Automatic annotation (TrEMBL):
Alphabetized UniProt keyword annotations: Membrane, Transmembrane, Transmembrane helix
Superkingdom of the organism of origin: Bacteria
Protein's UniProt name: Uncharacterized protein
Membrane spanning residue stretches: 170-193, 200-218, 240-261
Organism from which the protein derives: Asticcacaulis aquaticus
Amino acid sequence: MKLVRYIAAVVLSLGLLLSQAYVLLGGLDQTRQAERVSGEIAKLEPEVGQSKAFFALMQTYDTNAIRARMNGDYIDANFDLIMERVYLYLPQETPKSVKPVGYLVRQMEGKRFVFVVLEYEFSDRWVVATVTSEPSNPQRLIAGFNLNTYTASLLERTKFRLSGQSIEHYILLGLAVINLVFCAATLFVCIAAPRVRWRFLWIALILVGVGLMSFNWLEGRMALNIIDAGLPPTRLALELYQPLFIMLSIPLGAILFWMNFRKLTRA
């Protein structure tokens, strides 16, 4: 029975550590993930082709032609003014590359909309275009669009970088590691120690943190929510084209376990 407890303690505590390490290490090299996602989105035809054709039409600066390709139900009185502003940031040159980077299919008010996100590389900028199509429309008109310009690619801007960060970044990352190791060690002792009263209840409490602080690694922004909870108390989130988020909770269950350790293990 003792051996079983030790094996379970090692597996669960290491699993807690490795689950977060996998999130971080798995997201460091996102190039392969980006290629896979682009391949998947490229199969979403005819919406992807329609979005590319509409973007090419916008590069002609022909407002009347653009208006003709859009569903009039979604055009307001400021359309011409909006297009004039768009032209200020939209190059007329042929893009160096076009990469599908995201899509979303939504059902709203009985209609189906497909949002296709394309990243265009030009000589001096990157343009991320979100084009909304309405497949149920008989004329396959465009329902809307959104453009954003950047000085670097989406993959480059959201890449996780450990060097060159502020002291605040390193302190919060260090706290996250310490918190995670503390909870994993407490979980190991709770499972491996003999005669722990209410063992399974304490295992659950150790895995849950109180309050939630999230930190955006890219922007250096912090958000607090004292009535939230974290499972586990330290969580890392790093997805494709998204910045790293460090989420910390107070390991109250682990702290209470050590405060009552003698009572809980008394014969």
